[in-house]
Amino acid sequence: MTPIRIVDPLPVQVPRPMVLLRLGYRRPAQVPERVVKILDDTMEKGRSLLAPRAIRGTFDVAAPGAGVILIGGTLRSTSRSLHERLAGCRRAVLFAATIGEAVETWARDLMESGEMTRGLLADGFASSAAIALGLEVETIAARDLAEERLTPTKRYAPGYGDWSLADQAPLHEMLGAGRIGITLTEDFLMLPAKSISGVIGGR
């Protein structure tokens, strides 16, 4: 295992086309004129509220039994999809990351106060920021694995396929994700909600 590393802040770029696509607009020309100004103002405010941070560590991967994957000697899973994703991997980066709670609190407050359009745009911006966060984490993980001359797999997370969402618990405990402000509900959902976690294998 490598030392657990925290990146705070983790710079992320949230481009306008990404937000538009998240909102269902495939081309800028599709955006109603009255929405354009609101969107620009919303994105400017949203950027000021972002507090992106991440925590990660690189762990050994083993297959101690048929259909069993063991990460870091602690996270054990019989998920077939995870087993397939990590086939041939001897190391893996576990990670958790968040954009912080301020943006989603702001979006929720807007909707609760009746500013539905601005609230939906703010939520779309926050969701896009979480996507951008994932892309940045993938870049960092690829760099970590390249130092060990390993090629990264695609990002995978508890709740994908047949990988139990309950495995959020050991993943977050191994990383100490609370140090970047992420907690889990009783149902293993992350708070703040615009947070991500998962594994990227190295083979």
Summarize the structure.
This protein has helices at 16-22, 33-49, 80-85, 102-112, 116-146, 168-175; strands at 5-7, 53-62, 69-71, 75-77, 91-98, 183-184, 190-191, 195-202.
Features of this protein?
203 residues, NADH Oxidase, six-stranded antiparallel β-sheet, two-stranded antiparallel sheet, 6 helices, elongated
Q: How many domains would you count in the coordinates? A: 1
Q: Give the helix level as a range of percent.
A: 25-40%
**β-strand amount:** 15-25%
In terms of quaternary structure, the protein is single chain
Estimated radius of gyration? 18 Å
Plain-language structure description:
The protein has 203 residues and is of the alpha+beta class. It has one domain: 3-Layer(aba) Sandwich (NADH Oxidase), CATH 3.40.109.40. Helix content is 39%, strand content 19%. It is built from six helices and eight strands; from the N terminus they run βααβββαβαααβββ. The protein has helices at residues 16-22, 33-49, 80-85, 102-112, 116-146, 168-175, and strands spanning 5-7, 53-62, 69-71, 75-77, 91-98, 183-184, 190-191, 195-202. Strands 1, 2, 3, 4, 5 and 8 form a six-stranded antiparallel beta sheet that branches. A two-stranded antiparallel sheet has the order 6-7. The longest helix has 31 residues, at 116-146. The model has no long low-confidence stretch (mean pLDDT 95).
